[in-house]
Write a structure and sequence with these properties.
The chain is mainly beta. The chain has 2 helices and 14 strands; from the N terminus they run E-H-E-E-E-E-E-E-E-E-H-E-E-E-E-E. It has helices at about 20-25, 125-130; strands at about 5-10, 30, 35, 45-55, 60-70, 85-90, 100-105, 110-115, 120-125, 135, 145-160, 175-185, 190-195, 210-215. Strands 1, 2, 3, 4, 5, 6, 7, 8, 9, 10, 11, 12, 13 and 14 form a 14-stranded mixed sheet that branches.
């Protein structure tokens, strides 16, 4: 299983649009999301990478994508963002059998669910999602699929308050299980990429046994 060290940086009141430059300044390298687990049915492989750091009680997450088209149809939070050009962060903050799925399309529209498995997941309320800072190089307005080579970035500022079912969660020195994904179920070239490989017969990201680990530096 992959392991990613999440470094601490000194920053206060971080805005999502400043995350890429902050991570550049801290010399945080990108990590590729390049496992095409179901290549026979879904061979498309966009160039995708992520990097992460934390500042106090906030996770700073930056995705970088190059693909043959982009799509951002979902009109509002907790909609069908996975059908768009979508980057995802699934994380189990503690070893209690539950995890959060944080899914964001290329226009910064967000879906966050919670539960122990794929079925019966609870969408987090709007006021909790609104606390997540979001920036996309493509802007924040929905749009139909645009065909043609596109390079884009997205940044999220995720406060620990998003993990509402795990109050008083501390980042420093913590180790969590997680995976990172890129998908686009309704795009002209559907694809399902993961950071940590998934040994299942068909696309399924809701599979904690295949999560890697992220370790928050002290």
């Amino acid at each position: 299983m992959n392991n990613y060290l999440v470094k601490s940086i000194s920053a206060s009141d971080v805005k999502a649009e400043n995350v890429p430059s902050l991570l550049d300044k801290a010399e945080i390298p990108f990590e590729t999301i390049d496992n095409v687990n179901w290549a026979e049915a879904f061979p498309c492989k966009p160039n995708v990478a992520f990097r992460m750091a934390y500042a106090g009680d906030k996770i700073l997450l930056n995705f970088q994508v190059e693909e043959d088209s982009v799509r951002a149809v979902a009109p509002e939070d907790n909609g069908r963002v996975w059908e768009d050009s979508c980057c995802e962060f699934f994380v189990s903050p503690t070893d209690d059998g539950t995890y959060y799925n944080v899914e964001c399309n290329c226009a910064g529209t967000l879906l966050v669910g919670f539960g122990p498995g794929r079925e019966g997941r609870q969408h987090l309320p709007a006021d909790v999602l609104q606390k997540v800072g979001r920036w996309s190089s493509l802007g924040r307005q929905p749009f139909d699929e645009r065909v043609g080579k596109c390079h884009w970035q997205m940044a999220l500022v995720i406060p620990t308050s998003l993990f509402m079912h795990h109050p008083n969660l501390q980042l420093q020195g913590n180790e969590m299980r997680a995976n990172f994904y890129k998908c686009g179920d309704k795009m002209q070239k559907p694809h399902f990429l993961s950071w940590n490989p998934i040994a299942l017969p068909k696309p399924d990201f809701h599979c904690p046994p295949f999560f890697g680990t992220i370790s928050f530096a002290r």
